[in-house]
Write a structure and sequence with these properties.
Radius of gyration: 20 Å
Shape: elongated
Largest sheet: none
Number of strands: 0
Distance between the termini: 18 Å
Number of helices: 2
């Protein structure tokens, strides 16, 4: 029984990791696009550059941090719900087939 649970955990880890990577990439693109449309400037590529104002660098860091975390939470929770629902359907199908 522990082996079956371990395999399911590994499957979720793989799915969760892939979902996390795709979410981070997508959120970064969307937030960068929104930043550019809102401020009229490209997002700061190097926040340590002295060409970028301190306020802009901090503002972008805050927006990016909060936006990325919110996206990660929403997508991870949705993916977990879908995965659990899929497992339940798969388990029910196995019981019916037995």
């Amino acid at each position: 029984m522990a082996d079956k649970t371990e395999k399911q955990d590994m499957a979720w880890r793989a799915i969760g990791g892939l979902v996390g990577l795709v979410t981070a990439w997508g959120a970064r693109k969307v937030i960068g696009f929104a930043w550019e449309k809102t401020t009229g400037r490209k997002p700061p590529a190097d926040s340590e550059s002295l060409d970028i104002g301190l306020g802009e660098a901090i503002g972008y860091a805050v927006v990016m941090g909060v936006g990325m975390q919110v996206a990660q939470i929403v997508v991870a929770r949705t993916a977990r719900k879908r995965y659990n629902a899929w497992k339940a359907v798969k388990g029910t199908a196995r019981e019916v087939a037995s």
